[in-house]
Amino acid sequence: MSKSVARLKSMKKVADKIDHSSKLRTNVPAGMAAAGPPLGPMLGQRNINIAAFCKDFNERTANIKPGIPLPVRVKVNPDRSYQLVIHQPPSSYFLKQAAGTTRGAMEPVKEMCGKITIKHLYEIAKIKSQDPPLEWRSLKEICVMLLSQARTCGIEVVRELDPKEYGEFLNDRKTIVEEQKKQLQEKREAKMLRTA
Q1: What does the alpha-carbon distance between residue 158 and residue 117 come to, in Å, rounded to a whole number?
Q2: Which of 61, 101, 164, 182 sees the fewest Cβ atoms within 10 Å?
Q3: Per-residue pLDDT band at 196 (split at 50, 70, 90)
Q4: Residues 127-161: pLDDT tens digits?
């Protein structure tokens, strides 16, 4: 009986540890990875060297405009090393940049926050086709995906866009956004009064 127990113990030592950790999926601003929250605690939970990760990420994203949100996928190996994959910025970021807005619509179907042309949509699809999850999809499928994304952001896709009319639309939109922000602030203050 003691021989069988010894064999079991030796088999346990030989067997590799199974890695049950999941991939880390988060958005990190380009060139701005720091050890503080929220990134630091996420890396610490997975036993990744935080300083080395931040240095590696910031070096890889040095040629990108600082502050652009980049989706990051990190797979941790058993020896505490990691594989870092950096995707293109989210499609909502590209859509809002093309429309010239900083935020989407609060009520997407009823409200419109911006407009882009089909040409803009196609260019965004070409950029997004470089991402690993979308590599094998056709440009048509990616364009359809971006159309639905634009609708949920409150962005209308048109054939042609007149710059003067669109400039007036954006100016009108600024006043609407300011009113919405005031309403949100009033709701927050009312909630704070109720809870206090």
Answers
A1: 5
A2: 164
A3: low
A4: 999 998 888 999 999 999 999 999 999 999 999 99
Q: Amino acid letter at 33? A: A
Question: What is the tens place of the pLDDT at every residue in 67-114?
Answer: 999 999 999 887 888 899 999 999 999 999 999 998 888 888 888 999
Q: Are 48 and 80 in contact (CB under 8 A)?
A: yes
The model's pTM is: 0.79
The set of long-range contacts for 31-38, using a CB threshold of 8 Å and a minimum separation of 24, is: 31/58, 31/61, 31/62, 31/64, 31/66, 31/67, 32/58, 32/66, 32/67, 33/57, 33/58, 33/61
* Interior/surface letters 14-33, b for 16+ CB within 10 angstroms, e for the rest: eeeeeeeeeebeeebbbbbb
The alpha helices in 15-90, defined as continuous H runs, are 39-45, 50-60
Phi/psi of residue 189, nearest 5 degrees: -65, -40
The CA distance from 142 to 137, in Å, is: 7
DSSP 101-141: -SS--SSTTT---EEEEHHHHHHHHHHHTTSGGGTTS-HHH
> What amino acid occupies position 167?
G
The distance from CA 110 to its chain's CA centroid, rounded to whole angstroms, is: 25
